[in-house]
Structures
1.
Amino acid sequence: MRNPMGAIQRQLLNRFRNQDPQMFAQIQKMIEGKSEDELRTMAQNIAGDRGINLSDFAGQFGIKL
């Protein structure tokens, strides 16, 4: 069976790439070469800046961080 989360991620990335290709390219450069821990920290910082608890947000989708 295919990974349903992977399919959702691909759909979201494709939609974002089509809507704002320049920002998509900037984000790709920003995350390129980062480890999983570095990406997690980056996501937590971005979410925190917006007043979002990343663990709670991910939990809504059944994702445990």
Note: Residues 4-19 form the longest helix (16 residues).
2.
Amino acid sequence: MGKSEKIVDNAIKMKEKDFGKLVEEYSLSTVEENGIIKAKVVQVTDEGILMDIGRKREGFMPWGEFSSRREKAPEIGKVIKVCICRREKGQLLLSKKEADLRLSWAKFEEAFKEGKPLIVKVEKVVKGGLLSSFGSLKAFIPSSHVSLKKKNDLKRFVGKNMKVRGIKLEKRLKNIVLSRK
């Protein structure tokens, strides 16, 4: 083999290595940790759910990360939004709970900034007011912001939907205060 043939052969080998490296980097870089993606249920096991994330590898979601409510297992083929939590032993760990929380927070934050009303469901009466839910977020409605009447039976609102606006939002503390007025 001549000198020019060796140079060409080495160049081809380098390009093949570079291409393989680029493919690996692409498959890892397009899967952003803490990002929210759509994933398809591939298999349901006792430990959790195996999901196709549309990349070179699959992700796994333990049952504890599926939902805060008791939901039945998703059907194979169902597409759901999940958050990529971390990489562990070459596998991506996913969370539906975290994705739901982030998506609910984003909707609430947008409505808060624009002063738009939201519909929340009143969960229960707590000291000083009502505890409500908006998606997977919990929010407090002070009794003074529930009704114009001074003495009001708050129990009658439990289980009902209520149109409210945000009056306080502290993302760091995950503190949300709402008003019906």
Note: The CA atoms of residues 49 and 70 lie 15 Å apart.
